[in-house]
Amino acid sequence: MHDSDFDVAGRTAIVTGASQGIGRAIAETLATGGANVAICSRSMDRVGPVAEEINDADDADGQAIAVECNVRERDQVQRLVDETVAEFGDIDVLVNNAGGEFVAPFEEISANGWQTIVDLNLNSTVHCTQLAGEVMREGSGGIIVNLSSVNGQHAAPGESHYGASKAAIIRLTETLAVEWAEHGIRVNCVAPGLIQTPGVAETLGIDSEAMPPREATDRRIGHAEEIADVVRFLASPAASFMNGETITAKGVPRAGNSMSQDLGLED
Ligand SMILES: CCCCCCCCCCC/C=C/C(=O)SCCNC(=O)CCNC(=O)[C@H](O)C(C)(C)COP(=O)(O)OP(=O)(O)OC[C@H]1O[C@@H](n2cnc3c(N)ncnc32)[C@H](O)[C@@H]1OP(=O)(O)O
Ligand SMILES: NC(=O)C1=CN([C@@H]2O[C@H](COP(=O)(O)OP(=O)(O)OC[C@H]3O[C@@H](n4cnc5c(N)ncnc54)[C@H](OP(=O)(O)O)[C@@H]3O)[C@@H](O)[C@H]2O)C=CC1
């Protein structure tokens, strides 16, 4: 008989952008599975309470530390890596989650606007992966999970900067999987469709109370925990033969509904 191994207990994971939304759900899910998590955001006031909540939770076996770190700044990422190793001794898993966007037509995006989004999504992933990857390569390997987006797979108007940065993350994932396999490092990616998070609620005005439950199979909006569960799978030994892949999680439309009807934005 084969006993599947979805276990992440005892591993140490860095999760970037974990003060809310998908990153927070990933950190909570990994900690519930027994992993120790080092979580960051730009504000200790925002990420500190998340670490406290994980440490106080009865159902989370893993411990959490919070680090104030703007992932666009390489020296701050180095500090995140150093503090994680000082606290937990190693880095087994890196989840490059921090990211974001604004929606604007290509011709209205300034040079600085373009740079901002590429720095936030792509260059931050490069900083974290190079610096945490150094620890993994010198140790016993590791697992890296990147957050792309369906916008990195398909075109959408107003998303040129975001889509380009998220598409690049998919190719970076594929390349690193090949380059770093010899170091015992697996690199995979998740491409979410629309997920209800504080960031998206703010942008789209989506009411989390009106969210369809996970049991609903015909929906275009997902829960942050549904992405966290995919990440947990990729971070576990069960995904041992997955390397360089991008898993899409985007649901399906309700028959006859427009996207905005699916999202409850119109009748
Ligand atoms: C097939 C399935 C169907 C489903 C289809 C749905 C697909 C789902 C897609 C979901 C997409 C979700 C994407 C997400 O990432 S969700 C995360 C949500 N959270 C956020 O995006 C964060 C919100 N945004 C921000 O916090 C900020 O905008 C940002 C971090 C991105 C930038 O902030 P920062 O303070 O660093 O930057 P500045 O404000 O100083 O601006 C820097 C330059 O950028 C220009 N800018 C900023 N906003 C805009 C804008 N709205 N339009 C144009 N330009 C903008 C700004 O002017 C600065 O440039 P200049 O100095 O030249 O002026
Ligand atoms: N929600 C969605 O529909 C989709 C999201 N994604 C991707 O998933 C990831 C998470 O999205 P989501 O949860 O919706 O985002 P949210 O805006 O809800 O949360 C973003 C998180 O990232 C942190 N963050 C933002 N900028 C930085 C930075 N420079 N350094 C460190 N932390 C930062 C924020 O913390 P703080 O403000 O405290 O710094 C916050 O914790 C992103 O990469 C996004 O592009 C992909 C597809 C769809």
From TrEMBL:
PROSITE patterns attached to this UniProt entry: ADH_SHORT
Subunit structure as annotated in this protein's UniProt entry: Interacts with PEX5, probably required to target it into peroxisomes.
SUPFAM superfamilies referenced in this protein's UniProt entry, alphabetically: NAD(P)-binding Rossmann-fold domains
Biological role stated in the UniProt entry: Participates in chain elongation of fatty acids. Catalyzes the reduction of trans-2-enoyl-CoAs of varying chain lengths from 6:1 to 16:1, having maximum activity with 10:1 CoA. Has no 2,4-dienoyl-CoA reductase activity.
Keyword list, A-Z: Fatty acid biosynthesis, Fatty acid metabolism, Lipid biosynthesis, Lipid metabolism, NADP, Oxidoreductase, Peroxisome, Phosphoprotein
Cell location: Peroxisome
Entries under InterPro entries matching the protein: KR_dom, NAD(P)-bd_dom_sf, Peroxisomal_t2-enoyl-CoA_red, Sc_DH/Rdtase_CS, SDR_fam
Main location class: other
Domain annotation Ketoreductase: ranges: 11-183
Gene Ontology MF term list: trans-2-enoyl-CoA reductase (NADPH) activity
Pathway(s) served: Lipid metabolism
EC numbers on record: 1.3.1.38
The organism of origin for this protein: Natrinema salifodinae
Taxonomic superkingdom: Archaea
NCBIfam families from the UniProt entry: PRK07231.1
Catalytic activity annotation: (2E)-hexenoyl-CoA + NADPH + H(+) = hexanoyl-CoA + NADP(+); (2E)-octenoyl-CoA + NADPH + H(+) = octanoyl-CoA + NADP(+); (2E)-decenoyl-CoA + NADPH + H(+) = decanoyl-CoA + NADP(+); a (2E)-enoyl-CoA + NADPH + H(+) = a 2,3-saturated acyl-CoA + NADP(+)
GO biological process, one term: fatty acid biosynthetic process
Protein name as it appears in the record: Peroxisomal trans-2-enoyl-CoA reductase
Any Pfam family: adh_short_C2
